[in-house]
Amino acid sequence: MTLKGQTIFLRALEPEDLEFVYAIENDETIWEVSNTQTPYSKFLIRQYLENAHQDIYEAKQLRLAICKNQTSEAIGLIDLFDFDAKNKRAGVGIIIQNEANRNSGFGKEALSLVIAYSFKQLQLHQLYANIQAENTASISLFTTFGFQKIGTKKDWNLHNGKFSDEALFQLINQK
Protein backbone atom coordinates (compact mmCIF):
# COMPACT_ATOMS: atom_id res chain seq x y z
CA MET A 1 0.00 0.00 0.00
CA THR A 2 1.25 3.45 -0.94
CA LEU A 3 -0.42 6.77 -0.22
CA LYS A 4 1.10 9.60 -2.24
CA GLY A 5 1.19 13.33 -1.53
CA GLN A 6 2.96 16.35 -3.03
CA THR A 7 6.30 15.92 -1.22
CA ILE A 8 5.99 12.59 0.60
CA PHE A 9 4.45 9.17 0.29
CA LEU A 10 3.43 6.63 2.91
CA ARG A 11 4.25 2.98 2.47
CA ALA A 12 4.07 -0.24 4.40
CA LEU A 13 7.16 -1.25 6.32
CA GLU A 14 9.62 -3.59 4.63
CA PRO A 15 12.32 -5.89 6.06
CA GLU A 16 14.87 -3.35 4.72
CA ASP A 17 13.52 -0.82 7.24
CA LEU A 18 15.16 -2.69 10.14
CA GLU A 19 17.93 -0.12 10.78
CA PHE A 20 15.57 2.84 10.38
CA VAL A 21 12.94 1.47 12.80
CA TYR A 22 15.72 0.34 15.18
CA ALA A 23 17.15 3.88 15.22
CA ILE A 24 13.76 5.46 15.97
CA GLU A 25 12.74 2.95 18.64
CA ASN A 26 16.07 3.33 20.42
CA ASP A 27 16.32 7.14 20.28
CA GLU A 28 15.96 8.13 23.93
CA THR A 29 15.23 11.75 22.96
CA ILE A 30 11.81 10.69 21.60
CA TRP A 31 10.92 8.06 24.18
CA GLU A 32 8.82 10.60 26.05
CA VAL A 33 6.51 11.17 23.06
CA SER A 34 6.39 7.51 22.09
CA ASN A 35 5.82 6.32 25.67
CA THR A 36 8.81 3.97 25.41
CA GLN A 37 10.84 3.03 28.46
CA THR A 38 13.29 0.42 27.25
CA PRO A 39 15.35 -0.14 24.13
CA TYR A 40 14.28 -2.64 21.49
CA SER A 41 16.60 -5.29 20.10
CA LYS A 42 17.10 -5.81 16.38
CA PHE A 43 15.75 -9.32 16.91
CA LEU A 44 12.40 -7.97 18.21
CA ILE A 45 12.16 -5.37 15.46
CA ARG A 46 12.96 -8.00 12.83
CA GLN A 47 10.13 -10.15 14.22
CA TYR A 48 7.80 -7.15 14.14
CA LEU A 49 8.72 -6.41 10.52
CA GLU A 50 8.15 -10.04 9.56
CA ASN A 51 4.58 -9.73 10.86
CA ALA A 52 3.99 -6.27 9.37
CA HIS A 53 2.12 -7.93 6.50
CA GLN A 54 -0.92 -8.43 8.76
CA ASP A 55 -3.74 -6.10 7.83
CA ILE A 56 -5.14 -3.57 10.28
CA TYR A 57 -8.15 -5.77 11.06
CA GLU A 58 -5.83 -8.57 12.18
CA ALA A 59 -3.06 -6.59 13.90
CA LYS A 60 -5.27 -3.76 15.25
CA GLN A 61 -2.58 -1.34 14.15
CA LEU A 62 -0.94 -0.01 11.01
CA ARG A 63 2.51 1.54 10.90
CA LEU A 64 3.59 3.33 7.74
CA ALA A 65 6.94 4.82 6.74
CA ILE A 66 6.90 8.48 5.74
CA CYS A 67 9.19 8.82 2.71
CA LYS A 68 10.35 11.78 0.61
CA ASN A 69 9.07 11.64 -2.96
CA GLN A 70 12.37 12.78 -4.50
CA THR A 71 14.70 10.34 -2.75
CA SER A 72 12.37 7.65 -1.32
CA GLU A 73 14.27 8.18 1.96
CA ALA A 74 12.27 7.16 5.05
CA ILE A 75 12.10 10.15 7.40
CA GLY A 76 9.46 9.14 9.90
CA LEU A 77 6.62 6.87 10.94
CA ILE A 78 2.89 7.37 11.24
CA ASP A 79 0.77 4.88 13.14
CA LEU A 80 -2.85 3.96 13.47
CA PHE A 81 -3.16 2.04 16.75
CA ASP A 82 -5.89 0.64 18.98
CA PHE A 83 -7.91 0.08 15.81
CA ASP A 84 -11.49 -0.71 16.79
CA ALA A 85 -13.56 -1.78 13.74
CA LYS A 86 -16.76 -2.21 15.75
CA ASN A 87 -16.71 1.33 17.11
CA LYS A 88 -15.00 2.72 13.99
CA ARG A 89 -12.11 4.48 15.72
CA ALA A 90 -8.33 4.44 16.01
CA GLY A 91 -5.54 6.37 17.64
CA VAL A 92 -2.98 8.15 15.49
CA GLY A 93 0.64 9.00 16.25
CA ILE A 94 3.45 10.47 14.19
CA ILE A 95 7.19 10.93 14.53
CA ILE A 96 9.66 12.60 12.18
CA GLN A 97 13.05 11.16 13.05
CA ASN A 98 15.48 13.95 12.22
CA GLU A 99 15.00 17.46 13.59
CA ALA A 100 16.18 18.79 10.20
CA ASN A 101 13.04 17.31 8.62
CA ARG A 102 10.66 18.67 11.26
CA ASN A 103 8.62 21.83 10.67
CA SER A 104 8.96 21.27 6.92
CA GLY A 105 5.39 20.21 6.20
CA PHE A 106 6.17 16.48 5.96
CA GLY A 107 4.24 15.61 9.12
CA LYS A 108 1.31 17.75 8.03
CA GLU A 109 1.13 16.02 4.66
CA ALA A 110 1.46 12.56 6.25
CA LEU A 111 -1.32 13.28 8.74
CA SER A 112 -3.54 14.59 5.95
CA LEU A 113 -3.04 11.36 3.97
CA VAL A 114 -3.76 9.16 7.01
CA ILE A 115 -6.90 11.09 7.92
CA ALA A 116 -8.25 10.73 4.37
CA TYR A 117 -7.33 7.02 4.30
CA SER A 118 -8.93 6.43 7.72
CA PHE A 119 -12.21 8.10 6.88
CA LYS A 120 -12.55 6.98 3.25
CA GLN A 121 -10.99 3.51 3.01
CA LEU A 122 -11.35 2.31 6.59
CA GLN A 123 -14.70 4.06 7.07
CA LEU A 124 -13.71 5.23 10.56
CA HIS A 125 -15.95 7.58 12.49
CA GLN A 126 -13.18 9.08 14.61
CA LEU A 127 -9.46 9.40 15.23
CA TYR A 128 -7.81 10.40 18.49
CA ALA A 129 -4.34 11.45 19.59
CA ASN A 130 -2.63 11.45 22.98
CA ILE A 131 -0.24 14.42 23.10
CA GLN A 132 2.05 15.66 25.86
CA ALA A 133 0.52 18.93 27.09
CA GLU A 134 3.76 20.83 26.48
CA ASN A 135 4.26 19.47 22.94
CA THR A 136 3.05 22.62 21.20
CA ALA A 137 4.29 21.51 17.76
CA SER A 138 2.14 18.36 17.80
CA ILE A 139 -0.84 20.21 19.25
CA SER A 140 -0.57 22.76 16.47
CA LEU A 141 -0.30 20.02 13.83
CA PHE A 142 -3.35 18.10 15.01
CA THR A 143 -5.55 21.14 15.64
CA THR A 144 -4.79 22.31 12.07
CA PHE A 145 -6.91 19.35 10.93
CA GLY A 146 -9.73 20.03 13.36
CA PHE A 147 -8.71 17.75 16.21
CA GLN A 148 -10.27 19.14 19.37
CA LYS A 149 -8.92 18.84 22.87
CA ILE A 150 -11.49 16.86 24.84
CA GLY A 151 -9.60 16.35 28.07
CA THR A 152 -6.39 16.37 30.06
CA LYS A 153 -4.94 13.42 31.92
CA LYS A 154 -3.22 15.04 34.92
CA ASP A 155 0.26 13.85 35.91
CA TRP A 156 -0.14 11.07 33.34
CA ASN A 157 3.47 10.42 32.32
CA LEU A 158 6.63 10.27 34.41
CA HIS A 159 9.80 11.39 32.65
CA ASN A 160 13.12 12.19 34.34
CA GLY A 161 11.46 12.10 37.75
CA LYS A 162 8.77 14.63 36.84
CA PHE A 163 5.10 14.04 36.03
CA SER A 164 3.51 15.75 33.06
CA ASP A 165 0.00 16.07 31.70
CA GLU A 166 -1.20 14.40 28.53
CA ALA A 167 -3.99 15.90 26.44
CA LEU A 168 -6.51 13.85 24.51
CA PHE A 169 -7.50 15.18 21.08
CA GLN A 170 -10.31 13.82 18.93
CA LEU A 171 -11.42 14.26 15.31
CA ILE A 172 -14.89 13.08 14.40
CA ASN A 173 -15.72 12.40 10.75
CA GLN A 174 -18.69 14.64 10.01
CA LYS A 175 -19.53 12.92 6.70
Automatic annotation (TrEMBL):
Record-annotated N-acetyltransferase domain positions: 8-170
Pfam families assigned: Acetyltransf_3
User: What keywords are assigned to this protein?
Assistant: Transferase
Recall the GO molecular function terms of this protein's record. Answer: acyltransferase activity, transferring groups other than amino-acyl groups
Q: Acetylation among the record's keywords?
A: no
Q: What's the superkingdom here?
A: Bacteria
InterPro entries named among the record's database cross-references: Acyl_CoA_acyltransferase, GNAT_dom
Q: What is this protein called?
A: Diamine N-acetyltransferase
- Native organism is Flavobacterium dankookense
